[in-house]
């Protein structure tokens, strides 16, 4: 394992900072997106108007969006039901299983896919294992579900090593 396995390709403030024209310019036609604290706050399953508008923008630009979550099928299904997006549950991130399942299900070209998430330890690491680009976003809320808190502790150590090697990670307003 190398510290490079945790380095995101891009870093943006929030998922809705990803604009369709920028994604298309980068050759991205499919977005795999984490659910909790990336697409929606883990404690607000209904999401926001900004997320709804972002999903509509992606649909209009013919960019596929698939949720990739470690949560149970019923939890993810309930959370995305009113968004009209498909999902892979029990993705087993940091392993590539869920990402590979989505790529195979839809026939995506790995060069045209990006994984968006709020955690270096799961989302970014899984994207590297799957051989696709990644986008790190700031968590939507400062609190985490109990099972994420351990990852955040480990993540702080990895973050420090990344910044020691590459300098401070700056979140952009787009890619």
Automatic annotation (TrEMBL):
GO terms for molecular function: phosphatidylglycerophosphatase activity. Transmembrane segments: none annotated. Keywords: Hydrolase. InterPro entries: HAD-like_sf, HAD-SF_hydro_IIIA, HAD_sf, PGPP1/Gep4, S-2-haloacid_dehalogenase. It comes from the Bacteria. This is HAD family hydrolase. It comes from Streptococcus pantholopis.
